[in-house]
Amino acid sequence: MSHNPQRLCAIDELPEGESKGFDLDGDGQDELFVVHREGVLYAYRNSCPHQPGAPMAWRRHAYLNKEASLIVCFAHGAQFDIESGLCIDGPCQGASLTAVPLSQDRDGNVYLTE
Ligand code: FES
């Protein structure tokens, strides 16, 4: 059986300093989100470690603080390091988001690698 990685988006759809959610199964809730920071894409499950399964954005695609320097869960304000997914402040300090591995081809297409 051949395994084709699922294409998420083109890198152009994800400007530097922005986040974007993806509703892969079309149930109306994003399962994961991607952050573009300093040329690198980071993807995490949209599930806050404070209350596993709790979605984190305050509106669609809004996963970051105003300065776009941290990921924020808008339920109770947990703040996460973008690069590591570690909660650095808030009710689940020390816990981590679940990273989702991505890959990118030369044409700028972004894929899920799992
Ligand atoms: S559910 Fe995310 S901080 Fe409480």
TrEMBL record:
Gene3D superfamilies: Rieske [2Fe-2S] iron-sulphur domain. The keyword Metal-binding applies. Residues 6-112 form the Rieske domain. Keywords: 2Fe-2S, Dioxygenase, Iron, Iron-sulfur, Metal-binding, Oxidoreductase. This is Ferredoxin subunit of nitrite reductase or a ring-hydroxylating dioxygenase. CDD domains: Rieske. It comes from Marinobacterium lutimaris. One of its GO terms (molecular function) is metal ion binding. It comes from the Bacteria. Pfam families: Rieske. The keyword Acyltransferase does not apply.
